[in-house]
């Protein structure tokens, strides 16, 4: 185990350092095995200083997960110049990249901390932001259709979240198959509601 040398940092720099160390530990170990003492030791700070920034492990985890959600939203770019399938595939790939690299953290957020209101709010706000972005690129017939499509997207995003978490815990298909199941599910649900086919000729596989 490596310990960072002690050095003076501004409060913002120290917080960023602690978040980085926390993210590494939550990614590498199950939530129950991550100790605040180890976070402090790896960061080269006292436990008192760590607790001034984060009162407990849940608060540290929530901050780590908020940072991850912000980065995922930044990485999920819906480009109207691309087809809907390409946009969906890009967004799903960005999330799956994070889920695979941070399996323990994702399982902790969705299972161990399933009752934590702060963590659940972070995930809900990210899903709402993704739904808003998808609504902006879909060919809608009017406000009535918008309300219906919005409800469908909300349910689909929850479906994707549950499916991906289950897949992380026990992968029963390949990653590409998982992604294409998610895309196929939303296309099947949206086709009756849109003015044009959102993916004409799609054969069930995102290239």
Structure overview:
The chain has 207 residues and is mainly alpha-helical. The chain is built from nine helices and no strands. It has helices spanning 11-28, 36-43, 47-53, 57-75, 84-101, 103-112, 117-137, 143-169, 175-190. The model has no long low-confidence stretch (mean pLDDT 93).
Give descriptors for this structure:
elongated, single chain, Homeodomain-like_sf, 207 residues, DNA-binding, 0% strand, HTH-type_TetR-like_transc_reg
Strand percentage lies at under 5%
Structural class call reads mainly alpha
What's the total number of strands?
Answer: 0
| Ends distance | 41 Å
Nearest-angstrom radius of gyration? Answer: 20 Å
| Count of runs of 4 or more consecutive helical residues | 9
Q: Averaged pLDDT, please?
A: 93
Instruction: Characterize the main sheet.
Output: none
Instruction: List the helices and strands in order.
Output: HHHHHHHHH
> Helix content range of the residues, please?
55-70%
The low-confidence runs, each spanning 5 or more residues with pLDDT under 50, are none
What is the global morphology? Answer: elongated
DNA-binding region: 35-54
Protein name: TetR/AcrR family transcriptional regulator
Pfam family, one: TetR_N
Keywords: DNA-binding
Summarize the model shown:
This protein has helices at residues 11-28, 36-43, 47-53, 57-75, 84-101, 103-112, 117-137, 143-169, 175-190.
